[in-house]
Amino acid sequence: MSVTLLTWSLMIAQIMLGLAFVCATYRVLRGPRAQDRVVGLDTLYVNGMLLLLTFGIRSGTVLYFEAALVIALLVFVSTAALAKFLMRGEVIE
User: Fold this and answer.
1) CA 91 to CA 39: how far, in whole Å?
2) Cα dist. 28→22, 37, 50, 65 in Å?
């Protein structure tokens, strides 16, 4: 029973993350301001990381978790750099 429940839960989570991908892509393409597009891009990164985590849980492979960790680190740095660029117009002072 618990394996079936886990399988169905992961499948539903992956479908919902796919829908979140579509919504975030719409925000990136049609955002009225640059800040909206940055938030949409950040959401795309987080959704991709969570999708990798669900694939990792489903397959039982550690490789997906390591890739999600790398994506999380890159997202943090890129979001900070984009926020600084939007506030000041330059990244490196």
Assistant:
1) 18
2) 10, 4, 19, 26
Give domain status of residue 93, yes or no.
Answer: no
Q: Which helix (H) or strand (E) holds 40?
A: helix 34-59
Two structure tokens written together for 73: 């680190």
Q: Are 27 and 37 in contact (CB under 8 A)?
A: yes
Query: What type of residue sits at position 26?
Result: Y
pLDDT in tens, 39-69: 999 999 999 999 999 999 999 999 999 999 9
pLDDT at 93 over 90: no
CB 27 within 8 A of CB 36: yes
Domain with 23, as residue range(s), is 2-88
**CA 19/CA 71 separation, integer angstroms:** 20
What would the two tokens of residue 51 be?
């999708």
Q: How many domains does the chain have?
A: 1
